[in-house]
Amino acid sequence: MLAQNIMKLLQKYGVNFLNGLGTTLLLALISVSIGCVIGALVAILRLGKSKVLRAIAAVYTEVIRDTPLLLQLYFFYFLLPDILPALKLSKFACITIALVINSGAYMSEVFRSGIQSIDRGQTEAARSLGLSARQTMMRIILPQAFKNVLPAMCNEFVTIIKETSILGMVGIVELMFRAQSIAKQTYIFLEPYVIAAIMYFIIVFPLSKIIAAVERRM
Question: Global pTM?
Answer without folding.
Answer: 0.89
